[in-house]
Every structure is written in structure tokens, then in C-alpha cells.
Automatic annotation (TrEMBL):
InterPro entries linked: Glyco_transf_N
Family stated for the protein in its record: Belongs to the UDP-glycosyltransferase family.
GO molecular function, one term: UDP-glycosyltransferase activity
SUPFAM superfamilies: UDP-Glycosyltransferase/glycogen phosphorylase
Any Pfam family: Glyco_transf_N
Descriptive protein name: Glycosyltransferase N-terminal domain-containing protein
Glycosyltransferase N-terminal domain segment(s): 19-170
Domain of life: Eukaryota
Organism: Solanum stoloniferum
One record GO biological process: carbohydrate derivative metabolic process
Lineage: Eukaryota, Viridiplantae, Streptophyta, Embryophyta, Tracheophyta
Length: 184
């Protein structure tokens, strides 16, 4: 991946000279925030700048998690807090017939307001020494990045936060296969 950078005389690569930047767009649920945060850390280890975006509340949660990381692996990780309209999360209802965590719905609606700020950030990065911007977005955040492919030199890649085992398990069950409860 180092070929995307300009090498300095002393052999060091500067983030300011990076020709590629990555923008991460996670869904505002813990398992989704964490997975893209860990991917961000991996990408920054190649000295590629990563811009992690989201609503202010969720960026605070991500920043809190970074405190446990090795500082060397998060040195090129930049957080962008975008304001969203205030939302109120109702408390969870343990007696609800539907077990979907309805208290999360207002925060999901708030992410609708991230579409324009994300596009603006991509354009800003392209105007600041970056030849290409790669946007990696959570598979449940498609509406936030739907305008990005129309921006020259910007690419989008979808990230699935579901494990391969879970995917296999869902397919297995949908095809009428019994769950394996014990191994003999």
C-alpha cells in the first residue's frame, strides 16, 4: 500500500503527502462502531489516513475505545463529529412483544442527516493533496454514501459487520436445517 504515497528523502512517508485517504462510515450501534474502528486501526498501520465519521454521541464512544489502543496504531486516525438533530432514546421495554431494541431507532433516524456532511468531507479531502478517497461504509448506511460514487476520484466499498458463522447459521436455518445443539 505504500505505493500510494510520496516517499521523503529520509525514507519516511508523510500523511500530509498521502495520495489516498479513507473515510469510515459506521452504523451507530456498538458492534458496528467497533468493527470499523478496528479496521481503521489496521489501515492506519499502513500510514494511510483514516477519517472516522458519525454523529457527535457516537464519535465520543469511538474516541473512548481508542484510548485502549496502541497510540502508534491510531496516529493517523481522525474523528469527524457531525451534528444531528437532537433525538431522545426511550428506555428499553423488557416486556415488549417485539424484541427489537426500539430505543435505538431515534439514533438511526439521526444518521439520515450525515449524507451531506460526508459528501462535503470527501470533496474537501480530494481538494487537499489526496488523489483518491476511499469510503468504507457499513452495509446499513447506504443512504449516507449514495452520492459519493458521483464524485470524481471517490470510491465506495460496503462493509458487512456480520460474521461468516452468523451468515451461515441464518442460511442453514432458512433452508430448514436443524440447529446442531451438541456434537457427539
Amino acid at each position: 500500500m505504500a505505493e500510494n504515497y510520496t516517499t521523503k528523502r529520509n525514507g519516511q512517508i508523510s500523511v500530509q503527502d498521502a495520495q489516498v485517504a479513507v473515510v469510515m462510515v459506521p452504523l451507530s450501534a456498538q458492534g458496528h462502531l467497533n468493527q470499523l474502528l478496528h479496521l481503521s486501526r489496521l489501515i492506519t498501520s499502513y500510514n494511510i489516513p483514516v477519517h472516522y465519521v458519525g454523529a457527535t454521541t457516537h464519535i465520543r464512544q469511538a474516541k473512548f475505545r481508542v484510548h485502549g489502543f496502541d497510540p502508534a496504531t491510531a496516529k493517523n486516525l481522525y474523528f469527524h463529529e457531525f451534528p444531528t438533530p437532537p433525538f431522545e432514546n426511550p428506555p428499553p421495554n423488557p416486556n415488549a412483544s417485539n424484541k427489537f431494541p426500539n430505543q435505538l431507532i431515534p439514533s438511526f433516524y439521526a444518521t439520515i442527516h450525515l449524507r451531506e456532511p460526508v459528501c462535503s468531507l470527501v470533496r474537501q479531502l480530494l481538494g487537499a493533496n489526496h488523489r483518491r478517497v476511499i469510503v468504507i461504509y457499513d452495509s446499513m448506511m447506504t443512504w449516507v454514501v449514495e452520492d459519493v460514487p458521483a464524485i470524481p476520484n471517490a470510491e465506495c466499498y460496503r462493509f458487512n459487520s456480520i460474521s461468516a458463522f452468523h451468515t451461515f447459521s441464518c442460511i442453514w436455518e432458512s433452508r430448514g436445517k436443524p440447529l446442531i445443539t451438541s456434537w457427539n
